[in-house]
# Entry
Amino acid sequence: MRKLFYLAILLLSFASRAQTGLQVLTQGHKTSIRGLSVVTDNLVWVSGSNGQVGRSTDGGVTWKWMTVEGFEKRDFRDIEAFDEVTAVIIAVAEPAVILKTIDGGATWRTVYENPAKGMFLDAMEWWNDQSGIVLGDPIDGKFFIARTFDGGNTWRAGDLKDVPSADSGEACFAASGTNIRSLDKDEACFVSGGTKSRLFWKGKPIDMPFTQGKETSGANSIAVRDNKKRKNSRYFVVVGGDFGADTSAINNCFITKDGGKNWLKPLTPPAGYRSCVEFFTDSKLIACGTTGVDISADGGMNWKNISKAGFHVCRKAKEGKAVFLAGNGKIAKLEN
# Structure
């Protein structure tokens, strides 16, 4: 009997350690955070509404908050940080603006501005600390794309003939900065929503089976890794749904193991609309949205809800293993 008692205690201990949860690091700050860049396990930058940028150099224990002078009413939907002093942010709506700091956020320089009617920058992605891309909603029927090759100091908009066309009512969601992902060399892919929900890759659109036809529906975020079982193929996990009905788990996640030729629906989907998805190991993913956070341990085929707390974005450290989340005035860390 005593042996059984100790065995039960031991099994309970193992089960407790195996549980995955969230550690809330800070909350109550007056900003809606959608930009999140995790450089290392200790260095984290965030950006949000009300001209706010935050930085932590101790893994989220303490935060330094900054209001970007002259942009107090702007919403910075994405941020890319490279070290403790260098970062780039984008502001949505008109005029479209990209800013850069090289002194830890003390000052910011406007490195790109576009006052064109209808401009709305959605997301930014980087291959390295020099080469980056920014994606915006369609202008005159073409998605807006600009590139930088000097660390964000200068940006050049793509030639219209080389930019993908959008369907009427099709756009991208500036929900988490992860609807565009860099691949090999200068290759990238992105996803859209609205009247159509498509994956744009290798210069052509691929239809996805998300619910479509509404301004609030479609794909929001894509996570990518090499498919080790298929040579020269990609494994994509895409999340979204309808943020106008954010508790619905209908058509909110799809997977393709062959670069978009065939799409699979999870056996157990995330528990609602999800604005962001991220691989944090070869097979494990995290997804978050306004109604909660989910984890998958099998490449996205089955999801387990670990929190009902809403978050807009989740990102893994570029150099490290830590996973952070951010939302309306709060920041958390994944515990495992």
Notes: The chain has one domain: 23-335. Residues 1-18 have pLDDT under 50 and may be disordered.
